[in-house]
Amino acid sequence: MAFITANWNPLGEAFYRKTELYEMCWNLKDGLGDSLVAAAPYGGPIALLREPHRRSPSSRPQLEMYSASGVSVASFVWKSGPVVHLGWTVSDELLCVQEDGSVLIYDLFGSFKRHFNMGLEVVQSQVLEAKVFHSPYGTGIAIVTGSSRFTLATNIDDLKLRRLPEVPGLQGKPSSWVVLSQDRQTKVLLSIGPELFILDNTACTAVVPLGLSPQAGSIIQMCVSFSYKYLALFTDTGHLWTGSSHLQDKLSEVDTKKSTPPKQMVWCRRPRSQQPSVVLMWDRLLLVAGICQDTIQFPVEDQCVLVGELDGVRIISSTNQELLQEVPMVCQDIFKIASMAPGALLLEAHREYEKSSQKADEYLREIKEQSMLGEAVRQCVEAAGHEYDSNTQKSLLRAASFGKCFLTDFSPDLFVSTCRELRVLNAVRESDVGLPLTHTQFKQLTLQVLIDRLVYRQFYPLAIEICRYLKIPDFQGVSRVLKHWASCKVQQKDLSDDAIARAVCVKVGDSPGVSYSHIAAKAYDCGRTELAIKLLDFEARSGEQVPLLLKMKRSQLALSKAVESGDTDLVYTVVTYLKNEMNRGDFFMTLRNQPVALSLYRQFCKLQEQDTLKDLYNQDDDHQELANYYVTASYREKRLDSRLSVLQSAVDEYNKAKNEFSAKATEEEMRLLRFQRKLDDEKGAGLLGLSLQATMEALLASGLNKQAEQLYRDFRVPDKRYWWLKLKSLAEKEEWEELEKFSKSKKSPIGYLAFVEVCMKSNNKSEAKKYVSKVTPEQKVKAHLAISDLEGAAEAAIERKNESEMGAVLSRCSSSDRLLIDRLNRARTSLAKK
């Protein structure tokens, strides 16, 4: 226990400690001197621009990027303009602000992403100073130019430059300045000598910090806390004022006895901090000044860089990296000398238990008497989360596990989640990974962002292991990591397309939530079209394959995939695309190789584009379908001459197709049309467009019997059809004498039962009886039954000795026809005996 508190330093009622995070892996011969250094918060990467002011074409600055542990990630010669400032975005992209106002953005591996400019007026006046800041809107940049004007952008991903109002009396750059994010507004606080000004969108306002001593002098350095809630001001007389960032509350004022401005000044506080402080660094001294008027001094042997964190300050030197932070209260309670806190007693009880000492029982009894065993377990678990050393973590967690054994209603959720989270944190803190996150930072950052950062750094195996260990759903975990891995894999230029495709297939397999089309799109964006096509073969959803194939100009393959999918909408999508992209000849030739697509396109053209359908048949030399098209088209023509012309084209195409029947039928249609026009001209019959049968019916109904007979002869209408038409026409007109003459004109080809039935349909029984005698013997019974002559029907049935006909007559008899029924029954009995 004494060992753990050996590096604790008291500050008021609290303690501060420095924990070594890493021995840096880099080899910096000249240290961090004469370099621009930027380190991202939350254990982020470090950027180093050596000798940034060197401008000789033969000797240019070197931009180097490292992980937090000093492992080299990227390095390249800086060939652009002079750099004023380096900073990191919230997504770990490096911002390089140049003198001319250009901002160049690089990813973690040194690849150029994009650039933007801070305004045209900056090119002339040059950037004197710049600051990168993080706000609720994202990553922002603020600059001060040679014309003493401030320009800022609150979100570089949605760039909107704001030129702030002019500061009266300012020449060049101010003594010091910071960016404040207050009430969803971004402002600039600056000092000119002892005076302070706040710049917002509309005005420049003079402000006075509450309680700042008049003898404090000019403000030469200032800094704002990680949360933007607190502000520290350092004057040229060595006074350090701390208070709220809106300057209306004062925390303390400390005389540091130092008149020279510190090289860096950073807030060091943690959530629920007892004793927040400000860390100031000079060449050989690191000073921690608390609000209690006390200070802690650490000697500095090497050039260092301070990085403000959510719960402390990272101190980076050329040899090692340390974390300076206030010791959490729960850790103080447990590890403080002679502490009687429940957690301290439980930890001591477990140590005695491991020694098989009876003192363990005494400590447990003491905790139980106070009814604080649950609190003791909670303290040990919480303290384990705050400790960086894995052995200390294990000691605390074993003590907590020991205490849990004596509790019946203690929920294990906190213990289990802390164990899992610490295992993850210990893994990412390893030097080869280089993410020195504290438990507090991890909770603020969230697990999802941590996995994103591992993926961004290409630690795919570790990210997958964490996802599996924490049982994150595949869609949010392993599958998402695999998708990023595959997108990165396709960019490897030293591997062949086949090798990459096989590797991606083996790794990704059928993982849910991973789209091969998305991976193929990445490959295509990298200029690897063939690889993209190979990857698309693994995509099960044709709807995802086809759009990308069209984008890659692989139209025929896209059409094949669409046809294979069986999705007609998808086929139509591809066909429409091809139609717009190709000339008509190539388009038709492409469709000829895909019968299904061709058939669907023909159906579409029949409904929407009739003229295209004609061209399609012409292209294919499909005379049969072209003739059918002409026949259909003829019905859309209003003028007879045009219709006859189109029908003649149909006849020609039918002849080319050697379809004699259709050709002859079309010619007869043309003859009929000419006949109809002639009659319309002569008689005004209105026959044009009617079918042959309808024309004959109309002629017979109009009494134009000669013309009807002419059609009958000219078009070789079958006798039966003509007799039926005339029979119905005469009956409908009730021309019974003409009907009788017609029946005697020659032997009826349809028989005479038809005459009986037509007359009965017109309710003329007397006329119907005239034809019963002419009916053939086989139809006699039906004829007599049609005119309700049961006696005649019975006589005919008995005479023909036909049992089924007798049954038909019996079914029509009523109870009053008793004699007829007996007669038929006797005939049936007699027939049955034979």
Automatic annotation (TrEMBL):
Core component of at least two putative endosomal tethering complexes, the homotypic fusion and vacuole protein sorting (HOPS) complex and the class C core vacuole/endosome tethering (CORVET) complex. Their common core is composed of the class C Vps proteins VPS11, VPS16, VPS18 and VPS33A, which in HOPS further associates with VPS39 and VPS41 and in CORVET with VPS8 and TGFBRAP1. Interacts with RAB5C. Interacts with STX17, MON1B. Associates with adapter protein complex 3 (AP-3) and clathrin:AP-3 complexes. Residues 5-416 form the Vps16 N-terminal domain. Residues 514-818 form the Vps16 C-terminal domain. The lineage of its organism: Eukaryota, Metazoa, Chordata, Craniata, Vertebrata. It comes from Labrus bergylta (ballan wrasse). GO terms for biological process: endosomal transport; habituation; intracellular protein transport; regulation of myelination; regulation of neural retina development; swimming behavior; vacuole fusion, non-autophagic. This is Vacuolar protein sorting-associated protein 16 homolog. One of its GO terms (cellular component) is lysosomal membrane. InterPro entries: VPS16, Vps16_C, Vps16_C_sf, Vps16_N. It is a peripheral membrane protein. Belongs to the VPS16 family. Plays a role in vesicle-mediated protein trafficking to lysosomal compartments including the endocytic membrane transport and autophagic pathways. Believed to act as a core component of the putative HOPS and CORVET endosomal tethering complexes.
